[in-house]
Amino acid sequence: MSNNSSQINSVTGERIGVSSAPRKKSEKKKGAFRFGVAGYDIWPHAINFCQVLEDVDFLDITAVYDEHPRHLERLVELTGAKGYTNLEEFCNSDIQGAVITDRTSQRCAIAKALAAAGKHVLSDKPMSMSAAEGREMIQACKNAGVLLMGGFNLRLWYTWKLVKRVLDSGELGKPFHLYCAYNTDLIRRSEWENTFHSVWTDPAVTPGGGWLTHGDHAIDLTRWLFGVDFVEVLADMRTLRYPEFKLEDYGVAHYMLSDGSTALIASDAISDQIRLDVIIACQRGGISYALTPEPKLKIWGAPVLLGANVVEYSVPENWVDALRELSREFVNAIETGAKPPVTAEDNCRVMEVIDATYQSARESRKVTIRQHPV
């Protein structure tokens, strides 16, 4: 991935000191996958999908959708693509697939509409308002014979692919605990509206608050790195900094995993600076990662694989670049039939964990995490 972290806001992905002039659509990219962007609401992801895909050769953004005229105007500015305020017309445009970056409460309806039109679906995370709603999306896409891919981007970071390779080598022995702290402040409503009354704080349009914003990333990362499922949770959610909102701005959850290992995930929206810290404890070594003040990965206990007992890496990358790779994998899965790196089932399993985590916090007790067929 490119080293542009010094020019990009680590939370929103906004280009620092770079003007964003309206883009004029150039000639269509010959043979490129025709791609749509559905929704501005999750604007850090929406604008960055548009920007990082501008010059790729494998994909061409040919249509964008949002019911809100100002939101649609911004998506058109970023892409030069044809804009639609009517969902059916967007789905029946020339696109072959689309990413859904609309508010979470709209993703099921948009996915079903895309599937009914025979279009493939890349759903931003979290995929749905609940695991049950996620299963509806999966079934609709299965019935239509289209791909539904999940949107967790950490799997596409070089850092975490290296960590996965080290863990899979077995040299560190069995991992038995993962700790993750992922903290930021609340995200404002839009690029031009400096208020926290937004899709991140409205319980009608999101299944959770500050803990969920990044906590779901840690759930997916743990499932993938350890190759396990989550089986039990004890969670605590609080409103510490923003009492005017009904959703939590702080949370911590303790998990039992299917192989007997454990995880602790702390995430909040009360921090003035972004923080992402991960520690993985293994039988014969371990791994630590810190995003700030600069990205650092340390691995100890794998001299055969890495050439030294303790190895430190400086890996200047960020989630914005990973959106490009996520999109590349989406197109590749459609064109080759390969299994996508983040499946719809992966997203649904994360939602099952989320549902149980909030139940645990509401009821102040341990909750068993149930899996349903998908």
Explain what you see.
- The structure is a single chain.
- The protein has 374 residues and is α/β, with parallel strands linked by helices.
- The protein has two domains: 5-149, NAD(P)-binding Rossmann-like Domain (Rossmann fold, 3-Layer(aba) Sandwich); 154-317 and 344-368, 2-Layer Sandwich (Dihydrodipicolinate Reductase, domain 2), CATH 3.30.360.10.
- The protein contains ten helices and 15 strands.
- The two termini are 33 Å apart.
Mean pLDDT: 95
Return residue spans where pLDDT drops below 50 for at least 5 consecutive residues. Answer: 1-6
Q: Order of strands across the widest beta sheet?
A: 14-13-12-11-7-10-9-8-15
CATH fold descriptor of the largest domain = Dihydrodipicolinate Reductase, domain 2
Give the number of DSSP strands: 15
Helices, by number, come to 10
Q: In whole angstroms, how far apart are the ends? A: 33 Å
Rounded radius of gyration (Å): 20 Å
Order of helices and strands: EHEHEHEHEHEHEHEEEEEEHEHHE
Can you tell me the CATH architecture of the largest domain?
2-Layer Sandwich
CATH class of the largest domain: Alpha Beta
- The helix fraction, in percent, is 25-40%
The portion of residues forming beta strands comes to 15-25%
Structural class by helix and strand composition: alpha/beta
How many discrete domains?
Answer: 2
> Main β-sheet, in a few words?
9 strands, mixed
* Name given to the CATH homologous superfamily of the largest domain: Dihydrodipicolinate Reductase, domain 2
Outline, from the CA principal axes? Answer: globular
